[in-house]
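Need tokens for this chain, all 129 residues.
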Amino acid sequence: MNVKSLILTVIEIIIKVIVVAVVILFAFRTATEAYDFGYRVFADQPVSVSGGRTISVSVAEGSSVKEVADMLQEKGLIEDAKLFVVQELLSAYRGKMIPGIYDLSTEMTAQQMLEIMSGSDEDEEAAAE
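Here are the structure tokens for all 129 residues:
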């Protein structure tokens, strides 16, 4: 009876150690992914650094940021639509996207694309003239 009790105690401890290890691994992986996502929100990088392509995109009246982000990802202008949505949410161009046809490049950052699609780029050019 004593040996049986000892074996059950050892098995119970092993199971607890495995559960704790899995929880720690899950927490570490989740924290790493959250950090990476947060870093990419603020360390805006273009899809290609040199030799980019210019692609015309059309933003329709009433398009949501999510729809525009999905279209930009599909056309290869951004790598992550969810990241673009968060960047728009945190930018000075939040809710300022204007419907129209835009020439965007894979060398542009999300911030630059948002600036163009909000019409702010044209406002700055007009002010300079």
